[in-house]
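Bench notes, afternoon.
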Amino acid sequence: MKGKRELNPMLKMLEGLEDIDGDKKDKDIKQFTDTVSGIKKFGHQADKMLDVLVKADENWFIGNLMKLFK
C-alpha cells in the first residue's frame, strides 16, 4: 500500500528528530520535541487506521459505499 510506504520512513525520521542534542529544559527544544512527538503520535494513529482499512473486507466496504451513492 502506497500510504504505508510513505508513512514508515516518516515515522523513523521523527524518532530520530525526537532524540536531539541540547538542554531538554530549554523552552525552544522542549517545544520542538513536543511538536515532533505530537506529529509522531498522529502518524502512528494514521498507520493503525491504514491497517484497519487494509484488513477490512473490500467487497463489504465498496458495497456499502455504493449504497450511499444510490
